[in-house]
């Protein structure tokens, strides 16, 4: 960049990261806690992987270590497949176009897509689409991402979320630090969470949990 507005541009980008990433990361983390509290086997796999990569009872010391936590990455992606922070989004067609199924879209038409619905469609994710299975993102133990147009949680193509990597870094780092030290139990009785409509997904009534230090540490 070489224009006089470079500093303003960078400032605006940083502000966009902070504002757009605050509520969405909080939403993703809340849903992740809900799912892990009900899938102890996933928590155990995350803890075992962390102990192998970082060492038992050792803190995260580098970005490289976080990159080696493939199961944790798979679990976060799987959580957002079922509970995306942004349930739906819209774009406007710049030119007349025809979708792959033959649908004609006139210029200026508002097109809305729904990551929440897409993440639960059997035609996209198979007969186990409603199950929380981090393993669907792994190949021989290595994280393998899906086509972003199949998994539009961070949008795709030219419109991909600028803060994607920062959001994933925050989500994984916070979740890892919490679940290596604490156990989370959803306060009973608590029904299956329901998303509240809005710009960013929230759980109706919040998520009451009981937090205890891990007894095995």
TrEMBL record:
Give the matching SUPFAM superfamilies: Cytochrome P450
The UniProt entry, under InterPro entries, shows:
Cyt_P450, Cyt_P450_E_grp-I, Cyt_P450_sf
Identify the residues that bind heme: 161
Q: Which UniProt keywords apply?
A: Heme, Iron, Metal-binding, Monooxygenase, Oxidoreductase
Q: Which cofactor does it need?
A: heme
Q: Output the Gene Ontology terms for molecular function.
A: heme binding; iron ion binding; monooxygenase activity; oxidoreductase activity, acting on paired donors, with incorporation or reduction of molecular oxygen
Where does the chain cross the membrane? none
Q: Which domain of life is it from?
A: Eukaryota
Question: Could you tell me which Pfam families the record lists for this protein?
Answer: p450
Q: Does the keyword Mitochondrion apply?
A: no
Report the family membership: Belongs to the cytochrome P450 family.
Q: What is this protein called?
A: Cytochrome P450
Q: Which organism is it from?
A: Rhizophora mucronata (Asiatic mangrove)
């Amino acid at each position: 960049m070489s224009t006089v507005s470079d500093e303003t541009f960078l400032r605006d980008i940083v502000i966009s990261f902070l504002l757009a990433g605050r509520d969405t990361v909080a939403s993703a983390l809340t849903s992740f806690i809900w799912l892990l509290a009900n899938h102890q086997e996933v928590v155990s796999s995350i803890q075992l992987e962390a102990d192998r990569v970082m060492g038992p009872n050792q803190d995260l010391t580098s970005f490289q270590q976080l990159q080696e936590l493939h199961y944790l990455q798979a679990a976060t992606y799987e959580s957002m497949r079922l509970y995306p922070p942004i349930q739906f989004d819209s774009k406007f067609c710049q030119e007349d176009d025809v979708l792959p199924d033959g649908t004609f879209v006139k210029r200026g038409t508002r097109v809305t897509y729904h990551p929440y619905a897409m993440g639960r469609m059997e035609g996209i994710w198979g007969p186990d689409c409603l199950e929380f299975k981090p393993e669907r993102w792994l190949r021989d133990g290595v994280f393998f991402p899906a086509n972003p147009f199949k998994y539009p949680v961070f949008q795709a193509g030219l419109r991909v979320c600028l803060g994607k990597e920062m959001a994933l870094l925050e989500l994984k780092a916070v979740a890892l630090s919490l679940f290596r030290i604490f156990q989370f139990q959803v306060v009973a009785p608590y029904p299956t969470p329901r998303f509240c409509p809005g710009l960013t997904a929230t759980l109706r009534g919040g998520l009451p949990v009981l937090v205890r230090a891990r007894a095995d540490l």
